[in-house]
Design brief:
2 helices, 5-stranded mixed beta sheet, Immunoglobulin-like, mainly beta, 2 domains, 52% strand
C-alpha cells in the first residue's frame, strides 16, 4: 500500500508569520510514503520504498459538482486550492491518485496495456475527501492494480546452474484493460493477448486481472519444453495440497516454485502471497 498524505496546509486567517492567507492561496502539500510494492519509484527487495523527487502522480479531484485532472510532481511546484479549478466557494474536494500518470491529459478513464506500458506496476488510490481548513490531511492508500506472477526454478542436480540461468519462460495472457482513476478500479479486460518472455531461474510477470485459464506458460530448458495454462496445472500436479485459483486478482501475487528433475518438473510449492495471502499449493508436474 502506498500512503499519500495531501496536507492541505491551510490557515484561514493567518499564516505562520501572522499574515492573512489570500483566498484561494491555501497550499496543498503532498507528502508520500510507500509500503509493500514491486518496482519504481524506489523500492527495496521486500517491496517497501518511497516516491522520489520528479515522480509524477495523476490526481483526480472532485468537488462542487466538477471533476478535474491534475498532475502533481513530487518535489515540484506547490499546488494551491485555486489551481484545482473547482467552482468558486468549494470547501470540500475528493482526491484520487494514479501512478504512473497516464499519457492522456484529461478525463479519469484510460486504457492500460501492459504490452506497451513503460511502467507496468499501475498503482491506484481510491478517493478520499478533504475539507479546506487548517492543517487538513488526506491519506491516499495506493494499491497494485495488476496481478503479479512469480516463478522460481531449481534443480535436483539434473540440470546445471548455467542451464537454470538460461531457462526461458514465455507467459501469454490478456494484456489490456480499462482504468477508472476516480473510482480506482480496473475493468473490461480486453481479449487482446501478448506474449511476455523472461530468462533465468527467477522470473516475474505483471498481468492484467484475469482467469488462470486465460494464462499460458511455456517453459524451456535443456532442449525440453512444457506448456500448460495455469488452470491446466491443476490437472497435472501430483499430490497438490491446494488448487491454483480460478481468478488472478489485482494486488495479489501467485508464486510458483518449480524444481526440474529427471522425472520432469516438480512443483515443490506454490503460493499466493507477498501482497495478499491466498494459500499454498504443493505438487509434482512431469514434462
Amino acid at each position: 500500500m502506498v500512503v499519500l498524505l495531501l496536507c492541505a496546509a491551510v490557515a484561514c486567517d493567518k499564516n505562520e508569520s501572522g499574515a492573512g492567507v489570500p483566498a484561494g492561496k491555501e497550499e496543498i502539500t503532498v507528502v508520500t510514503a510507500i509500503d509493500a510494492l514491486t518496482r519504481a519509484p524506489h523500492l527495496n527487495e521486500d517491496g517497501s520504498g518511497y516516491f522520489q523527487d520528479g515522480d509524477k502522480i495523476a490526481l483526480t479531484v472532485t468537488g462542487g459538482g466538477k471533476a478535474v485532472r491534475k498532475e502533481y510532481t513530487i518535489g515540484g511546484a506547490a499546488l494551491y486550492w485555486e489551481d484545482l479549478g473547482l467552482p468558486s466557494g468549494t470547501t470540500e474536494a475528493s482526491f484520487a491518485g494514479c501512478y504512473p500518470a497516464p499519457e492522456s491529459a484529461e478525463g479519469s478513464e484510460f486504457t492500460f496495456d501492459l504490452s506497451t506500458a513503460a511502467d507496468k506496476d499501475l498503482l491506484l488510490a481510491p478517493a478520499m475527501k478533504v475539507s479546506k481548513s487548517a492543517d487538513t490531511k488526506v491519506n491516499l492508500a495506493f494499491k497494485h492494480a495488476m496481478h503479479k506472477l512469480a516463478i522460481n526454478y531449481a534443480s535436483d542436480g539434473t540440470y546445471t546452474q548455467e542451464q537454470l540461468e538460461a531457462v526461458k519462460t514465455t507467459c501469454t495472457a490478456k494484456s489490456s484493460c480499462e482504468v477508472n482513476m476516480a473510482a480506482a478500479t480496473v475493468s473490461k479486460t480486453a481479449d487482446k493477448t501478448a506474449a511476455f518472455e523472461a530468462a533465468g531461474k527467477a522470473v516475474r510477470f505483471l498481468l492484467v486481472p484475469q482467469t488462470s485459464e486465460e494464462v499460458t506458460l511455456k517453459i524451456e530448458i535443456g532442449g525440453k519444453t512444457v506448456e500448460h495454462t495455469l488452470a491446466g496445472l491443476n490437472e497435472v500436479l501430483k499430490n497438490a495440497t491446494q488448487e491454483i485459483p480460478a481468478a488472478l486478482d489485482g494486488g495479489k501475487c501467485l508464486t510458483l516454485n518449480l524444481t526440474f528433475g529427471k522425472d520432469g518438473i516438480v512443483v515443490e510449492g506454490s503460493q499466493i502471497g507477498g501482497w495478499e495471502d491466498q494459500g499454498t499449493v504443493d505438487g509434482d508436474i512431469s514434462m
